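Form 7-S
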Amino acid sequence: MYKSSFLKKLLATSVLASALITGMNAADKEQKYIIATASTGGTFYPVGVGIATIASIKLAAKEKMTFSAISSAGSGENIDMMDKGEVNFSIIQALFGSMAWQGKAGYDGKPRKNLRSISMLWQNVEQFVVYNKVATTGNIMDMKNLYGKKFSIGKRGSGTLVSGETILDSLGIDYNKMDLQYLGYTPSSTAMQDGKVDGMNIPSGVPTSAITNAYATIGADKIKHLEFSDADIEKIQANYPVWTRYVIPKETYPGQMADINTIAQPNLLVVTADTPEETVYLLTKTMYENLPFLNSVHKATKVMNIKKAIDGLPMPLHPGAIKYYKEQGIEIPQRLMGE
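Output:
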């Protein structure tokens, strides 16, 4: 289980690293980079902090590179910040990356060709958590029981919001008939604990601290995850084939006595095309050479593996990432090589 106390220690380590870095000779100009993540109650943020921390520790002295992670509304805002040159790196959902790269949905006619992939990180597990009074069957179609009721679908501009809308649209569930609340992960969990919403949409790596808190406070006998059938998956895949079956093992959350059959899509680390090749190469190398550190930050990263690094990427790789993967003997398909 991811502990908030660990994140505090990690942030303290990051602050200490920054203090040490600041003390370097002023003549050695450092390169500063920002990694955009998402709300603090999910998985993007702690993993982003972990990547920034280990990269700064390993690269500051010799390479004069430092990294920091910031919270955000998620994938949508991250792509916008990259487009505006406000950040170089971000963590995004594969769905959002696919839409942005192809110029679909919210990017209709305006593809974001400045985006490049670095790595698939872990799978973003779709978690629709509702009160039992709503879950009459336990299947995702029970979302129709939320018509007229308050449901937290995710912050405006977030990947959470778009993935939730895309899934519900694919299944013929009209989310506009719900009293939608646009909250981040922790606020969603707090609102559910306070009885102010009847459900929440939290796609994230598991376990997710916001959901853990909800189960611990409300009780597993009063709330549950809605599940997806094979037929549900087929309908969702027909629109965007980025989701696959994912089973959340029993006892992942307090009082969870059975496996949960849901779906998941990849989360990606992406970068702007104009970021220096050597910077991306060193960050990629540092990340994969220090996986035990990232594993200690969040359990979701335990699935990270160099052999799966390019799985599910919706856009070409950055040349810096290509350089590292070739050194590791990874065969890269032409579609990920770019121009």
